[in-house]
Fold these 2 entries.
Entry 1:
Amino acid sequence: QVQLVESGGDLVQAGGSLRLSCVVSGSIRTINTMGWYRQAPGKQRELVADITRSGGTNYADSVRGRFAISRDNAKNTVYLQMNSLKPDDTAVYYCNIEGVDRWYRPLNYWGQGTQVTVSS
């Protein structure tokens, strides 16, 4: 059993900042990629940013330069620092991990989501 617990979502004014966290626990041998996705009302879920175990990052064009993803492998935690927030960033943000469990079986899990609302 694997659990992802997200935190940090809130209501913030445009131009403000938030930091999301996602803590992973359970039967995991290795977490390879950790990522943040978001889903706004009436839209499909989209990748915001992801990060490999070695620290390689990938960002959506809409957030590059404003958001920064990082991870602490010792704590099985991934962060998303969001700066210069815009109303278009309003969405439910989901944490996602890909890796292998203690029996080397591939795994892919999602968090429950945390709401980010940016007011204009």
Entry 2:
Amino acid sequence: QVQLVESGGGLVQPGGSLRLSCAASGFTFSIYAMKWYRQAPGKERELVAVIMRTSDSTNYADSVKGRFTISRDNAKNTVYLQMNSLKPDDTAVYYCNAVHPIFDRYNYWGQGTQVTVSS
């Protein structure tokens, strides 16, 4: 059974940091591209960061470049999103997504974790 379980969300003040984790099981994690999306109330889901099967290939939305870092530990089947210098506009539900590099019908989602940036 495929599972993606996010954790690490919460309430943080502007300028603060959080690290999200996404623990994967039920598929060959190491070959999948891993992505973090977010969705704020009333807005469309937005791609935040991508990391390919090897950790040296990453990409970020312009809105988070220089503040967020995506990483993965294939030995632990886990992907991370380190979020620094958080802003109120970063408030959203953050979702973990796994996509097979060839057969994109193999596309899995976590349940999401809430991040709220507020003073």
